[in-house]
Amino acid sequence: MPNPTPLHTLATERGQSIWLDYISRDLMTSGDLHRMVTREGLRGMTSNPSIFDKAISAGHIYDDALLAEYRRDPEQTPQELFFSLAVDDICDAADHFAEVYRDNARHDGFVSLEVSPDIADDTDATVNEAQALHARVNRANLMIKVPATRAGLQAIRHLTEAGISVNVTLLFSVQRYVDVVEAYLDGLEARLAEGLPLDGISSVASFFISRVDTLLDGELAALSDPAANSLLGRCAIANAQLAYAHFMDIVASPRWQALAAAGANPQRLLWASTSTKNPDYPPLLYVDGLIGAQTVNTLPPATYEAFLKRGEVPPAALPGDVEAARADIASLGELGIDLEAATDRLERDGVAAFADAFHHLLATIEERLEHIKAEA
Q: Active-site residues (predicted)?
């Protein structure tokens, strides 16, 4: 075994896994992903439309594959071409994590692929596309990402019942997280009632962090109130603490214990959007402040490198002072800030941002293909 890194320490001594919030074909072909998995202790990977947009739009590393895929089937739409490229990347990445998946009782080693953001409010379309992508990738360590919209809740239940591992994304509010947990448990119970196995299913609930502070800090700063200023940079972690408290309640419940006895895996909280957007905040604020057992933190490359290079692994921060977290969230209401309205807005904005990135990606593919064909 290679020398332990902070990622190894975090997993073995704190019970938290680090996944990478990034994918690009050159990460696999260069050997960088192999190093990160085998030597540094990386335990999974997430992707989304914005990440693929950046990967495919930057440079020309996908040009040959794009032309080859077009020649294979010239009738493909830009969206079909994208998913062909994405599925190849996801399959390659999943194979890199296959040993992690096997060695960790199928709790880690997952790679996530998201359904089209345009169908976030359509349950049937989400289920159909998720099933099709799951079949195309055909890897046990695939997670299909489904946005935690109201339509997404029913999709999560159906997909879990069907035996598909789901990464529930774009979660901002504790109440919506409660709803997501219910959807997961309902899906497991329906599957159990059919006499189907539960041990091959895993799930994470991706709870977004920094975007909460970015929005609320602006509203707090506008109040010019000492009580408001004291909450700057604290609300996102307090919000996450309350979500984690609910997770702890669930795994201690008789309902969960019955499912666990039947082989079910808990739906771990995954901390997403954990790079700090405010330069005045410590770069690892949303890493150090969210260390806790049975959780995942998915880090973009810069945050990943910063955590790896620092070397030190702080003590667990969760569950933390839950009552203090409740008081911080209650203080928002006392100051006239509606947290529910804020998280609803963040969900809408998040879906819209991914849709915009997806449309930009498809336009880029179309333009790039025309350019490649002209030069071929």
A: 145
